[in-house]
Structure formats: C-alpha cells, structure tokens
Amino acid sequence: MNPHAWQKQWGRKTVVECSTCGRTMSERDCRDVVAERSGGGCEIRIEGWCQGQAREFQHRLPAGRGGLFVPSNGLAVCGRGNVDGCHGFIHRNPEIATANGWTVESGVDPAVKPVEIWMWGHMQASALLDDDGGYHLVPEPTSFTT
Ligand SMILES: [Zn+2]
Ligand SMILES: [Zn+2]
User: Given 33, 84, 108, 123, which is the most exposed site by the fewest CB atoms within 10 A?
Assistant: First the structure.
C-alpha cells in the first residue's frame, strides 16, 4: 500500500500534494531525493549498456500517462536522452522494461510494483521504492531479464 495519495496541485504541473497527510513535493524535491538515493550512479546497470553515471530521470509511469514526480515513480539511469545507456535500453525494449518494473502499466501505482535495481552487495535485487528515497527489498527476487 502506498501511504500517500498524491494528486497534482491545481494549476501546477509538477507539484503534488498528498490528500492523506497534506505533504507536498515539487519536481525539484523529487529529483533531489532520487539523486541522493542513487548516489549519482545508474540504479539499474544493464550489462553491456550501462555507462555508470546517472544522467536521466526515468519515469516508471510516464508523465503522459499520469506519472508524477515522486521518488517511487523515478529511477536514476544512465544514458543521453533516449538513445543510449540504460535509458536507451528501456526505450528500445518496452516489454523487458515492464517485466523488470523499470516502466509500469497505466493504472499501476509504481510504489507497489517491485523494480529490479542494482545495489552494492546485492547486485540485482527486487525492491519497492518509497517516496522518501528508500529501497525495500522484496524477499523473492523476480528474474532479471535482459
Ligand atoms: Zn501522504
Ligand atoms: Zn545504466
């Protein structure tokens, strides 16, 4: 369960407010949390594609399908634009990206959908992302597919 019920603030594109707790989050806040969570490194590290340094913010649910600037909906990934690196891989391989939780289907809350991420000491791990910059490991890893 996502403890937050985020909604866009009226008239503002990238500021969200939780109708449960009243907390607000701007795009800037969200990017800062994700950057701190990742430590500046790519969070998915696809072998043969990864460039290491995170340059792009991957919306797991794209903005065009209602995705918000909240940390559970974002991944720090490498690549320049949609062309190369792990970000490029995601955009070229939508089915694999969905299987790994790097993107989610419309109507799915990314906070409750595990994502395959790279972690020091774990290599690939299945985790839930919260909106405070936390990873919560899921006991039974799903297969990491590339
Ligand atoms: Zn809340
Ligand atoms: Zn990468």
Answer: 123
